[in-house]
Amino acid sequence: MTKFRLALASLVAIALTAACQRSGSEVVVYTSEDQVFSEPVLKEFERTTGIKVRAVYDTEETKSTGVALRVVAERDRPQADVFWANEPLRAVMLQQQGLLETYRSPSADGIPARYRDPADHWTGFSARARVILYNTNEVKPDAAPSSVRDLTDPRWKGRAGLANPLFGTTTTQVAALVAVWGDPAARKFLDEIKANGVRLVTSNGEAKDLVASGELAWAFTDTDDASEAVEQHKPVAVVYPDQDTIGTLVMPNAVALVKGAPHPEAAKKLIDYLLSRQVEEQLAKSTAAQMPLHRDVTVPSNVKPVAAIKDMAVTYATLGKTIDGILPYLRQWSGTS
Amino acid sequence: MEWYELKSRPSSRWRPAPWLAGSLFVVLIAGALPLVLIAVIAVGDIARAGTTFVSWRTVMLLGNTLVLGIAVAVLVGILGTTFGLLAAKTNVPGRRALVALLTFPLFVPPYVLALGWFTVFGRHALIAAVVGRPAGIRASDFFFGLGGVVLVLTIAYTPIVMHLVRIALHSIDPAIEESARLRSRWPRIVWRIDLPLVVPAIALGMLITFILVIGEFGVPAYLRYPVFSGTVFTEFAAFLDIRAAVLASLPLMLLALAGVAAERYWLRMPTQAFAHVRRMPLGAPLGSWRLPIALAGWGYAVVTVVLPLAGLELQAGNWASYRATLRGASSAIVASVWTAAVAATIVLATALMLSYLIERSSSRRLNGIDTALLLPFAAPGTVLGVSLILLWNRPGMAGVYTSVVILLIAYVAHYTPIAVRAVGVALQDISPAVEHAARLAGVPWTKMLRRVLVPMLAPALAGTWGLTFVMCLRDLDLAMTVRPPGVETLPIRIYTLMANSSSSVTAELALVMVGLTLAVILVAVATVGVTRRMSAST
């Protein structure tokens, strides 16, 4: 039995050691910004401040239930200090549930007011856009789709793709269309794209892969996915849709202080850092090719400044209520239940 | 034999009760408490079920789920039994290598396998390149639908039945087959003697597969086959509604229980118990069929395993790229291996005690524990994970909830049930007379366990440890939901890097996972071998 007891004692010791590994100065961040982009930013923060970052990474790929859900599940005893979402809608939904604290970061000063929550529950930075990615072997440039309305064009029956609007940035896109067109017109549009056999895929990354492989002629995706495909020299090209009409949807990252955060001071330092010009420049220069919201950040040639595109006129802070109204319909529409 | 009756003799050194109670306590804390929480939430919210979930759409989704679960379970049963027989009973050339090769798909999450198969069935993939574009379009139409889901999940889960059958066949007393040989030839012996004896193993493998398949969401979502597990996911991820998601998980758990009932119905014919005399089973020579069967077996392995793995390898980068990927994933690799190994060890110890409690008790009530035990496995990983968060994220529990301990609890809760069944199936084949003899000789219960049962169950215990280790290592839903901040496992890293990383990184990580699992299993097998040789020589 001695060996058995020794093994048991070792197990307990390992578990306790792991349980007790806590440093004095740390910050816990839950982030849905893709790990390949967020991890270097957080490591740099750790290096420059000496504050240990403990991150829970997630992905907008529809394989996980998401870090926003975890913030909800932990509402009675929050473990996260900072919530860093890759688009503003989930931050708005958490704000509606009373799970976010107000914090006005000094770094937010140069960021236009429309990309911030008026009550400072969350602040936007480094944005992406919803763009059309098409396969250049399948589609000639002069025949390329240029509007979200092309999803209903019989020309593309069964050849166009869209990530499931219940998840990720497609939810934000649908919420924005409802805000701009009104609920009845948006529902009619959704019914039409369903009738046109638009392929619902699980994520924007998958939409990009299916277009790059020629499985789909074109699909909506985000600029970071599109940029990656372009960098890898896939046979693809990008269109910023609806530049003559409603404009292209721009979606900033959103960062927020979680209500009841265990480490509020370290959390504020991380939020200040994420909203800094330095991070916006870092994300612009990465494969993410994100668009800085501070006007004076220099961007590489492959990144379009926000000012260079006509962006859709939506108020992000009200999108939460908009999406509440249409989510049950989307559930039926997408056939999930 | 009834252990509680034996316990009543204070003078006896036969005292299993504290050990059995201890293992029951582990399962109650890890698995039963979250289930109680799920039940409380569901009962409190049952009124909403009618308005939210009762629709023809729900019926269709449940129908699709059932069709998928049954199709994959039946195919896995047939293929797994065939390969288990080939591995354990025949002289097919290179059978050990064949078994190892066929096990690979179990080492990676099914979604990654599906990505591998896309390199074959995509509209512009291998089939299109070899046969032509129209064939590629037809292949893609087949792949994106029920056909593709059945294909991917069947290949993913065939190793479970194969190994359970292989282990069960190794546990059959050769004396029975030798007696049968006096009157019958080999194919008939396999059909009439061996197969009936391994039916519990086949049924268990099919049941595990059925439960895993009906809870699977990633592959059906990717291949556009609507299933009910999407409802649970939608409530969580789109609506952030925990109560509705818990409620939506109930039909899946009821389907899993229906699977258990089907298994029980199949097994209602009693199987006889035989005492083990030796380990090596008799071989059934294939004769003139050896070559065709070898070609068929190896052909299947090459097509179903080598092809998608080669697809991943083609996407992977060079050695320098591998090194960079490994450097980034080193902490995830360490965390994955040690948590899976520790969890598998705790699960095995608990499963040994609990299966003894269940198999050696004549009480119907205790047999009912067996069914109840399957519920934590039947609960979708995300639902179990969220209920563990609600349960353990409390004042004074920081040492548990914010550390890897919560991950270990989650693994133990979710995977102990299948380990109990796997050990239990092997225990059924050991006559209680062996234990009676030990007890009459005055051997303490714990010593009998170590010196009699554990050696006799060694193949089954080693197999169960390996299966549990693999299940923990490849777990995604549960680990993703409960992992503490700053800790990631390899499957989590694969998924979180899948978005926007180059496809080479994902492919490399998937192949690293295959190699890593294989390496740990080989080390474990070698360690068991050395230990057994050392104990035999003393």
Could you tell me the CATH topology label of the largest domain in chain A: D-Maltodextrin-Binding Protein, domain 2
Q: Helical residue percent of chain B?
A: over 70%
- The proportion of strand residues of chain A reads 15-25%
Q: What form of chain B results from the Cα inertia axes?
A: globular
Helical coverage of chain A, percent range: 25-40%
> Helix/strand-derived class of chain A?
alpha/beta
N→C terminal distance of chain B: 32 Å
The number of helical segments of chain B is 26
What is the N-to-C succession of helices and strands of chain A? HEHEHEHEEEHHEHEHEEHHH
What CATH architecture label of the largest domain in chain A applies? 3-Layer(aba) Sandwich
Give the class of chain B from helix and strand content and strand pairing: mainly alpha
Overall radius of gyration of chain A: 21 Å
Based on Cα principal axes, name the global outline of chain A.
globular
Q: Please identify the oligomeric state.
A: heterodimer
Number of strands of chain B: 0
CATH superfamily of the domain at 53-225 and 293-311 in chain B: MetI-like
- Ends distance of chain A: 54 Å
Major sheet of chain A:
10 strands, mixed
Describe this structure in words.
The complex is a heterodimer of chains A (337) and B (538). With 337 residues, chain A is α/β, with parallel strands linked by helices. Helix content of chain A is 39%, strand content 17%. In chain A, strands 1, 2, 3, 4, 5, 6, 7, 8, 9 and 10 form a ten-stranded mixed sheet that branches. In chain A, helix 2 (35-49) links the parallel strand 1 and strand 2. In chain A, helix 4 (88-96) packs across helix 11 (316-334). The longest helix of chain A is centred in the C-terminal third of the chain and has 19 residues, at 316-334. Chain A is globular, with a radius of gyration of 21 Å. Chain B has 538 residues and is mostly helical. Chain B is globular, with a radius of gyration of 24 Å. Chain B has a domain at 53-225 and 293-311: MetI-like (MetI-like fold), CATH 1.10.3720. Helices cover 79% and strands 0% of the residues of chain B. At the A-B interface, helix 1, strand 1, helix 2, strand 2 and helix 3 of A face helix 4, helix 12, helix 13, helix 16 and helix 19 of B.
